[in-house]
Write a structure and sequence with these properties.
Layout (H helix, E strand, L loop, with lengths): L3 E4 L9 H11 L3 E7 L11 H10 L3 E7 L3 H11 L3 E5 L7 H9 L3 E6 L17 E5 L18 H8 L4 E5 L7 H6 L4 E4 L1 H4 L4 H15 L6
Parallel strand pairs: 1-8, 2-3, 3-4, 4-5, 5-6, 6-7, 7-8
Helix pairs in contact: 1-8, 2-3
Bound molecules: D-xylitol-5-phosphate and zinc ion.
Zinc ion binds next to strand 2.
């Protein structure tokens, strides 16, 4: 898979959402990553489908909706109708994710599974044929600007070996030019980054540097 750079809207200046999204597009970002939190699954609250609609008005890039909620089955459809192109949800809340993966795809979006730091990667292995992407969290979900947890990166290579080169493997949490080598060399090709991109003084340079680091180190066949 090619390298995908996905700035996380959670880290942008929400008083200037439109300008921030346009800056990300101009900087060469591929997707917009949108974190949805319900105050139950994670100790924070964020965005609903109306924000997806707002993003859609400004940018034509894929909107990657990360559902950190206890009831993703209830809310996947409104996010897709609002313009989400990818919807991911946590395996921890849905041990049999097959029906929801199928429904997301039937509604015309791509479907992905997410694992929290303490969840074994083997939990998603039975569903890889029905999954467009696996998101491996590299921080405890809930907040932007946290420190990368290197132990989470150990899950990437086993997943890449099992899935082969055709699955998107996304990493989210503390991803930067500094942490890129360890995750990309293990087989991650989709980089979510909040602080490293939206908090940078020059977003164009930050996107270019993150992409270059992933391209330099990406290994679709890790040992
Ligand atoms: C955290 C969110 C992330 C967050 C990443 O729960 O899922 O998408 O915005 O932010 P950084 O890159 O700053 O860790
Ligand atoms: Zn996220």
């Amino acid at each position: 898979m090619g390298i995908v750079i996905a700035p996380s809207i959670l880290a942008c200046d929400l008083t200037r959402l439109g300008e921030s999204l346009r800056a990300a597009d101009a900087a060469g970002a591929d997707w917009h990553h949108l974190d949805v939190m319900d105050g139950h699954f994670v100790p924070n609250l964020t965005f609903g489908p109306d924000l997806v609609k707002a993003v859609r008005k400004v940018s034509d890039r894929l909107i990657d909706v990360h559902l950190m909620i206890t009831d993703p089955a209830k809310y996947a459809e409104p996010f897709i109708r609002a313009g989400a192109g990818m919807v991911t949800f946590h395996i921890e809340v849905m041990p049999d994710p097959r029906p929801l993966l199928a429904r997301i795809r039937a509604l015309g979006a791509k479907a992905g599974l997410v694992v929290k730091p303490k969840t074994p990667i083997e939990s998603v292995f039975p569903f890889l044929d029905e999954t467009d992407m696996v998101l491996i969290m590299t921080v405890e979900p809930g907040f932007t600007g946290q420190k990368f947890m290197p132990e989470c990166a150990a899950k990437i290579a086993p997943l890449r070996r099992r899935a082969g080169p055709g699955l998107h493997i996304e990493v989210d949490g503390g991803i930067s030019e500094t942490t890129a080598p360890v995750v990309a060399s293990a087989g991650a090709n989709v980089a979510v980054a909040g602080a490293a991109l939206y908090w940078a003084s020059d977003m164009r340079a930050a996107v270019a540097q993150l992409r270059a680091a992933f391209e330099r180190h990406y290994n679709p066949h890790p040992a």
